[in-house]
Write a structure and sequence with these properties.
Elements lengths: L2 E6 L1 E4 L4 E8 L6 E8 L6 E8 L5 E5 L7 E5 L5 E6 L8 E11 L2 E2 L4 E2 L3 E6 L1
Parallel strand pairs: 2-12
Antiparallel strand pairs: 1-3, 3-8, 4-5, 4-9, 5-6, 7-8, 9-10, 9-11, 9-12
Length: 125
């Protein structure tokens, strides 16, 4: 089991920046794979960035075309807190943002996603 707690978000004007944070905790895993999604009412949850297995011991982060070059995923030194740095925000970025965490097994990232509670991001023109 992974507990996932989000923080950050808020309202900014177009062109501004925000940083979202996501803390994963629990005793089952000592490291995590993570992803970031967003969702607007009436639509499906869209993938923004996600860590995936690139090999036996390596991972890569893929970004949606809509956020490439603007959004960047990082993690703290403790490896349990993750961040989504969002730059040059646009009104169409307004959504509820969710992080998800997956446990790391010897073969790589688990498939089961543990979700954060979500945080609202509003970008005004």
């Amino acid at each position: 089991v992974i507990d996932v707690v989000q923080s950050g978000g808020g309202s900014v004007q177009a062109g501004g920046s925000l940083t979202l944070s996501c803390k994963a905790s629990g005793n089952t895993y000592h490291s995590y794979c993570l992803g970031w999604y967003r969702q607007v009412p009436g639509k499906a949850r869209d993938l923004l960035a996600r860590e995936e297995d690139a090999g036996r011991t390596t991972r890569r982060t893929t970004y949606a075309d809509s956020v490439k070059g603007r959004f960047t995923v990082s993690r703290d030194n403790n490896k349990n807190t993750f961040h989504l740095q969002m730059n040059n925000l646009k009104p169409e970025d307004s959504a509820m943002y969710y992080c998800e965490a997956r446990g790391v097994w010897p073969w790589g990232c688990d498939a089961f996603q543990y979700w954060g509670q979500g945080t609202q991001v509003t970008v005004s023109s």
